[in-house]
Amino acid sequence: MNILGFSAYYHDSAACILSDGEIIAAAQEERFTRKKQDSCFPEHSIRYCLHEAGKRMDQIDEIVFYEKPLLKFERLLETYLAFAPGGFASFATAMPSWLKEKLFLKKTIEDEVAAHFGQFSAPIRFTEHHQSHAGSAFFPSPFEEAAILCLDGVGEWATTSAWSGRGSTITPLWEIRFPHSLGLLYSAITYYAGFKVNSGEYKVMGLAPYGRPTYMKTIYDNLVDLKPDGTFRLNMDYFDYCTGLTMTNERFHTLFGGPPRQPETHLTQKDMDLARSIQEVTEEIILRLCKALHKDTGASDLCLAGGVALNCVVNGKILRESPFRRLWIQPAAGDAGGAVGAALCSWHEFHKQPRKPKGGDSMKGCYLGPEFSNEEIALFLKKRGIPAEFMQNDTLFPTIARCIADEKVIGWFQGRMEYGPRALGARSIIGDARSPKMQSVMNLKIKFRESFRPFAPSVLRERVNEYFELDVDSPYMLLVADVQPKRRIPVREDQQKLWGIDLLNVPKSDVPAITHVDYSARIQTVHRETNPRYHRLIKEFEQISGYGLIVNTSFNVRGEPIVCTPEDAYRCFMRTEIDTLVLGNYVLQKNAQPQTSRDDSWKKEFELD
Ligand SMILES: [Fe+2]
User: What domains are defined for the chain?
Assistant: First the structure.
C-alpha cells in the first residue's frame, strides 16, 4: 500500500511516500523551488517522491493532508468574534484566501493533484495538525511505548498537546489551546528582538548565552501565568496576534522599555538579555510539562515534535534534568514533518497496521531526498564545461581530510538530501573545528550572516563522549551539551569583565569553532550505518589530526534554502569563499574555476532570514 502524505498552505510544504509503512522518500518544497519555507502545493516534492518510489499518482492508494481546514477556520472565526471588532484588519486580510481556497481544501487538493499528475482514484484524508506532529514523533521512534509532547505556534486549536504512544496507537491526553502558545510567546520575543518570526527563533536561542536572564521576572509577572504542572496562560493584553497583523502591541513595547529592534540594526545587551530570559522561561515551562507528563503516563521514554522541539538547548536540558530516561525527537519537527506524521497516522491508526520498532529509528538518518550519481554529476560538469577531478574513494577521502586540516572550507555534496531543517553531511559546508578563525570565516565569507551564531560539530558517534558531556545518539543535531571540562580554556581574569558579543573572540576550548560562549555545542553524532561516506571522511580526518570531529553547517547562504542539485551547489560554491567543492567523487578547486566577476547583486535574490 502506497500512502502520500503532505503539508502545505501555511509554511514549509513537504511531501512523503510510505510503501507498506516504510518511509521511501520525503522532501520539502523549498529545496526545489529555491524559495525558503515555500508554502505552495508541493508539486515538486510529490513528483520527486513518486519518482523515488517508482509509482504514478494513479498507483497511490491514499493521500493524507496534515491538518483539518475546517477546524482551523473555526479557530480563526471564533478568535475574530471573541475580539470583535478589534480584529477586523487581520480577519479581512485572512478571509479572501480562506473563502477562495482553504475552506474548500479537499476540492483544491483534488484539483491540484489532477492538474499536475493526471487522473487518480486515491481518497483524500485529513489528520489533525497535532495528531500529525504526535504521529511524526512516535511512529518512527525506536520506542514500543512512550509519552509524546508536541509544542508549536498553532495549528487548528492546539498549541501544546500531550499523548501516550503504545504499539501502533497514539492516544491524546490533554492540550493547551490558542491563543495560549509557547511557540507564539517565543516568536513574540523573536519579533521584538528584531528577528523574523518562524525562522529567527534559532537566532534568539543562539544569542541567549550572551545575555543575562534579567527579564524573566517581567515575563512571569506580566505575560505568562505558569502553573506548577507547566500548563500556562498568556495575558493577551500584551499580544497582537489575535487581532492585529503583528505579534506584540504598544503595551508590550512599554513593558520592555521601547519599540521593537529594527531588523539588521546593531544588537544591544537588551536584545541578548531578552533572548536569555525567554530561553530560560521556555526551559522552565517545558521541564515542568515533562515532569507532569512523566507522572501522568509512567512512561520512561519521551518523543517530541512541533517547531519548539527544534530548540535543542531545551532538548539537552530535558535529557539531563527531566525524569525521562530516553528522548527521541522528530528531525523535521516543524510543519514539514507533518507530511511524514500524517502518512504514518493513516497507516497505523486508520489502517490498523502494526508497528515494529527496531534498534534505531525508522527515519533512515533523514537521508530521504534526491541523490545524484557520479554519472549525472559528470554530465552536469561536462555540459557546463566545469573543471573537476574524478577521484576514487581511496584518494578522495584522504585528500579532502587533508584539505580540512589545512583550514580549507569544503562544500560536501553526497548521496540523498536531508529531510528537515538540518544539514547532516549530505549537503553540508565543513571545516576544521580546531581552527580559531573558522567561525568568523564561515559566518562572514561563506554564510554572510551575523557573527554571533555558533557552528555545530559532526562527531563520530564512538567519540562523542571524548569531546562532550553526552553519550547518547544525536544523529539529527537536536541536542545541546557542554564541551568536556578538560578541553575548555578558562576565561582569563581580564576577560571576565567581557559580556555579550565581546565574548565571541575569546577562545573557549581546543575546538573553538564549535564551542559556544557558554561552552555548549549543538551536536550531530555521525553513524557508519546511516552515512558511511561522512563517517569515513571524519575518520580519515581523525587519522591526520587526532580529532574525530569537524564543523558542519548547512550548504547555503543566508536566506537561501539548502542546496538540492549539483547546479545549486556549484552556484553557492562560486558565490562564496568555499575553497573546494566535492560532488560525489568529483573534486572542484576554486582556484581552477573560470574567473567570474564578483557581483553582490545575487544577495538580493534571497530575502534575509
Ligand atoms: Fe505545527
Answer: 2-142+333-364 (3.30.420.40), 176-328 (3.30.420.40), 374-604 (3.90.870.20)
